[in-house]
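@channel sequence for tomorrow's demo:
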Amino acid sequence: MTPHRNIVARRPVFPVRRIATVWHWGSPTPPTRRPASSMECWHLSVTAHPWAWLGIAKLGGSPLYALHRADGTRGVFVDMRSLPQERREALLQSVRDLVTPTTVYVHSRWDEELEETVENLYRTHKEAAFEHEGERGVIEARRGWAPTRALQVLWKRHFIGRLDPYSVQDCALLAAIERTARFDGAWWTDRLDSVNYSAPRGAIFQSRVREWAWRGPLPETACPDFGADW
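structure tokens (generated this afternoon):
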């Protein structure tokens, strides 16, 4: 007789970054509605390179805060740049109350200065062709995601600007990760190159902000990368 074994379902493994201290430019109580979004959507924007972001986002005059988890442990952030495509698809499928499958259009071109392919995402072929009229590049249809009424309501609660196709996927993906209740937030390990407006950044989920202690406001000289010329 085969011995009985307890079978325990394994939770999906996510690539993560464990960070003790992060930095935030701006008030602990941001305005209810902002003009536009970024990859962090409505979550708290943080970084490990505050001096670099001071120049990139023109944040002069904003208060600077250092944050660490109140329990003394390191924050756990999902590494978005290392998240496999199949995991992204599974996460988006798990929030069908926020997004539904659709067709989107991508304009791709080679950027000689950056030495990489640059892509721009659009709702329709007509919109992509209009925005890149006269430019080199290719427009192709891809599988994408459209916002449901629920996501549109969430967006309007936080932002004044238009909900673009990039933000649809970004916000839905972060919502799916937040619902796992396993992580403090998300992290984007982008290239540190402030001349080209690039630096690593992160987001602490709104549901986790209360678990972080704030220190500040602090002077610019408190930046761990103060004075660096990236």
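heads up for whoever presents: The chain has five helices and eleven strands.
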